[in-house]
Amino acid sequence: MRTVSLGKTGIQLSAIVMGTWQAGRSMWADIDDAQTRQAIRAAFDAGITAFDTATVYGNGHSERIVGQALADCRHQAVIATKVFSNRLRRDQVVAACEQSLRDLGTDYIDLYQIHWPPGSFGGESVPLSEPLGAMSELLAQGKIRAIGVSNFSRDQLAEAHRICPISSLQPPYSLLWRHHEAATAAFCRENGITVLAYSPMAQGLLTGKFGPEHRFAPGDHRAKNRLFQVPLYDRVQEALARLRPVAERLGVSPGQLALAWVIAHESTCAIAGARNPEQASQNAAAGDLALDAAVMAELDHIGRTVTDHLDENPMLWNF
User: Fold this and answer.
1) What pLDDT does 220 receive?
2) Residues carrying an active site annotation
């Protein structure tokens, strides 16, 4: 498993990070806690040492599952979590961090992140200096080891980085969703900010398991993913038909190919979720894949048959 430095902290992340939104169960269907814990352990055993969660994933449920699964190997793992946009006053950030520490069953969080910018989803539009000031205090106290942000625009990221050193940015980024390249990639490169790409398999689309007639179970938020909505979904299916032969030629799955494309970019990790141990192990295997320039160009061309038809809205869902 290749590793990526987390900003300028010296912390090393596995190139494939296990995402645990699904572990929270809320906004997902047919999630089993025992199977999720097994998936987290399978990921760790396969070389994934970094795990990403958030308070809002099931109101702490995901954090509790992550903490339980990694309890006996905590100091060998890097745990990242996030505070939501409705808790960004100083005292709220401190209280949220303390709750996350309890839910995770740990005395420190490796990477603490602002999940969405202030004002998102009805949250209070507090100055960025307030949550970041609180995070800086938590950093000085040793309760967190690094500070990151998620879903920030270039201007928001630049403002945050002026206030305190930002180690990471989480944007949605995949072959089929590439706003990050034009919006924030250059700033991250220039300032030593690590990219933690979420939805690198486009919430399962790039695994190839969703056909033209797929319908999600009630309660599954992916039904609101813009890539799953026509007419864009038709273009996605055409792109998948062109990606499958490339994966077959390389002897990998389409999902592994999608992950390998993401982590081929400088200082970039891919956050990949898994429902079961088999999926976790398959994701981990992508951490050792290297794609040559010709394959990268081929994939770039296929991906653009979808991304060239997107508008400038970076929001992945129609919530």
Assistant:
1) 84
2) 57
